[in-house]
Design goal:
232 residues, 4-stranded parallel sheet, single chain, 42% helix, alpha/beta
Length: 232
């Protein structure tokens, strides 16, 4: 059971479907918000399931919302057995996936003349934002001019602020790598505002990158061996 955030934008659900279509398992989908089915609806009638968050950082949704929804589902059906898995990120394969999307935008991996703005959705959970910052630090070692984190909401710098700062610092070229799973409000806003701020290129969201399908399969196997502990 893959659980995505959900969006009113139909492109998001189509992207999730394309990603799950690459996974050689009986995969069903549920959403936290905005569209059906909910997790409770998707689990109805099942006896066993492995629930995997289609989220790129461990934050409120994975630490609070999903465990609460699973506790409610188990309260309604005491015979339901659920294994809970880890979020997609952080994971080493996400960097090749980001580079794949940049290459599609005409940006060669590790270009010494290119500064990258790594943009996540942002969170009120400082731990989640710190993971994105650490991902940027690790990616910086690949040879880029630099890699700097930015956040589309709830934290600073914003993507546009990060682009403008790199331009002022003399970066020869500034590109944007969205650390986002699916198209929608945040992705559109990031593209629009960073191009207005002077970005030279904006990559597509991670979407149905084959690396993400590989990570999802790994998370499933990990959850079978050692599921994440849930209260109660």
């Amino acid at each position: 059971m893959a659980v995505a955030h959900g969006s009113r934008d139909p492109r998001a659900a189509a992207t999730v479907a394309a990603l799950l279509g690459q996974v050689p398992l009986d995969v069903r989908v549920a959403y936290l918000d905005h569209c059906a089915p909910s997790l409770q609806q998707a689990l109805s009638g099942l006896r066993t399931a492995v629930v995997l968050p289609l989220l790129l950082t461990e934050a409120y949704h994975s630490r609070v919302d999903l465990p609460a929804a699973l506790a409610e589902a188990r309260g309604r059906d005491p015979l339901l057995r659920v294994g809970y898995g880890r979020t997609l990120g952080p994971h080493p394969l996400l960097l090749p996936a980001l580079e794949r999307r940049l290459a599609e935008a005409g940006v060669p991996a590790g270009d010494l003349g290119t500064a990258v703005v790594l943009v996540s959705a942002g969170s009120s959970d400082a731990r989640a934002n710190a993971v994105v910052a650490e991902t940027a630090r690790v990616w910086r070692r690949s040879g880029w001019w630099t890699v700097t984190p930015a956040y589309a909401s709830a934290a600073r710098p914003t993507p546009a602020q990060a682009v403008a700062a790199l331009k002022r610092a003399g970066a020869p070229r500034v590109v944007v790598a969205p650390y986002l799973l699916a198209p929608g409000f945040f992705a559109d806003k990031v593209r629009r505002e960073t191009l207005e701020a002077g970005a030279d290129a904006v990559a597509d969201v991670l979407g149905a990158a084959p690396e993400l399908a590989e990570v999802l399969l790994e998370r499933y196997e990990d959850a079978l061996r050692q599921p994440v502990a849930l209260a109660g």
